[in-house]
Write a structure and sequence with these properties.
Elements (H helix, E strand, L loop, with lengths): L3 E3 H7 L4 H35 L7 H25 L1 H20 L4 H15 L2 H12 L5 H9 L1 H20 L2 H21 L4 H7 L3 H11 L10 E3 L19 H31 L4 H29 L1 H22 L3 H29 L2 H31 L4 H24 L11
Parallel strand pairs: 1-2
């Protein structure tokens, strides 16, 4: 007998099983690689500056151009994924990252670094929106936000691991070792995803593709489910026609979209201003190269803790209740860092607290964005939101370089970095008070 089956209902009511864990693991590892590659240039910068004998500010465009590439990748490849699928975009992007990181290790001029980091950024721009989309579409509803933040924290793990590895490898093998490792890791993940990563079930049903494979996966997600070739697979949301981008501003989504753009822009400006310049600023303050790298690593360590804990709290209290005070505390921590950066231990503590909020909070923001948009718009909406965030990431390193050019003190530069964190907190309050249609997970 022919009957209809809502695939979203199956996934949402499911218990997290082995198949979903395998999907989430691949997404997590992909985020680890992305985080490592994003932060690689910042960790290599002090040694590269000494090796090439160049001014600190000359690397500002190098930091910024990778963010420009990520902006383009987020905007363009999110929409591509809504058309051709999440899986092929992710696999191709990972293979591209491997080749480009290898070439970066062999660069010999700033112009070569500019070109390579720009193209690498385009490939990296495909990662976060598509990972957030896949996790949203495979996670059970009752702990979806926590799983999204856990997977998103892979970016922080990559930055953290990158800092520890860089601190160990650079004194022995030079700055190039960071990029050689950054080539090997995405190659391995690309091969893993090529073999084992499934396509989005919702995307397949909306597009009418690979339906037999969808039925097979549904049985793995919910053993005993009655589904066969006579079962009509449906998804309870209309398929949008026309340009996906225009629908980000229809159906009362315009204000929510603009607020998400503001929040992500300000937070990523803060993240990349600090992530790009903390190792250089700490080195200039008289700390050793290893201490300077570890100061940057402390921010990622705090972000890892934030990514793991904030999702749990959001599942129970909601986005606004948790994230608004988190960003306020981060702004205060950055102000304290601006006063105590000359004391290495106090610097580690204040940077870690700041990282807890702005990096861990970014993982929660990714979850908030992915749950805000319906399936047909999810990769596009997430891609554009993160793309606007990347624009903030572009501005961050350039602002740091400009302030250094005008001979701002380290303390004043760090005070300036606290401002966008405060604006992000105000944006979250506005988004929260708007009461947007973000479905909160149902606790058992």
């Amino acid at each position: 007998m022919n009957h209809q089956l809502d695939i979203c209902a199956v996934v949402e009511r499911s218990r997290l099983g082995a198949f979903q864990i395998l999907v989430l693991l691949q997404c997590f590892l992909c985020m680890v690689v992305d985080g490592f590659d994003i932060q690689a240039m910042a960790y290599a910068a002090p040694a590269l500056i000494a090796d090439w004998g160049i001014a600190k500010a000359s690397l500002g465009p190098v930091f910024g151009t990778s963010m420009l590439g990520m902006l383009i990748g987020s905007l363009a490849l999110g929409s591509v994924a809504d058309k051709v699928g999440r899986r092929p975009v992710l696999v191709i992007a990972a293979f591209a990252m491997a080749g480009l990181m290898f070439l970066t290790a062999r660069a010999s001029t700033v112009d070569q670094l500019l070109a390579l980091r720009f193209v690498t950024g385009i490939a990296m721009g495909a990662i976060v929106p598509n990972i957030a989309t896949l996790v949203t579409e495979y996670a059970p509803r009752h702990n979806r936000v926590m799983l999204l933040t856990l997977v998103s924290s892979g970016m922080v793990v990559g930055g953290l691991v990158g800092g520890a590895i860089a601190a160990a490898l650079i004194p022995l093998f030079g700055w190039q070792a960071v990029f050689y490792l950054g080539a090997i890791a995405p190659l391995g993940i690309a091969l893993f995803m090529w073999i084992a990563l499934p396509e989005s079930l919702q995307w397949c049903v909306l597009r009418g593709r690979h339906l037999q494979r969808v039925r097979s996966i549904l049985k793995r997600i919910e053993p005993g489910l009655e589904v066969d070739e006579q079962t009509t697979l449906i998804i309870e949301e209309p398929r949008k026609k026309g340009l996906s981008f225009s629908h980000l501003f229809t159906d009362d989504r315009a204000r929510g979209t603009l607020l998400l753009w503001l929040i992500n822009f300000m937070n990523m400006l803060c993240v990349y201003l600090l992530a790009s310049w903390i190792p250089v600023l700490m080195s200039g303050a008289g700390h050793t190269p290893s201490q300077a790298v570890l100061a940057g690593t402390a921010m990622w360590l705090g972000g890892l803790a934030g990514g793991w804990l904030l999702g749990w709290f959001v599942d129970r209290r909601g986005f606004g209740t948790v994230l608004a005070p988190t960003f306020i505390v981060s702004a205060v921590a950055i102000l304290l860092f601006s006063q105590y950066y000359t004391s290495i231990n106090l610097a580690y503590v204040t940077v870690a607290i700041a990282g807890f909020g702005i990096l861990g909070g970014q993982a929660a923001l990714n979850a908030m964005t992915a749950t805000y948009y319906p399936t047909a718009l999810r990769a596009t909406g997430t891609g554009w939101t993160l793309g606007i965030g990347r624009l903030g990431g572009i501005c961050g390193p350039f602002i740091g370089a400009t302030l250094l050019h005008f001979e701002w003190s380290t303390s004043d530069l760090l005070v300036a970095a606290a401002i966008p964190a405060g604006i992000a907190a105000l944006g979250i309050i506005g988004f929260w008070r708007m009461k947007p249609a973000v479905p909160l997970p149902v606790t058992r």
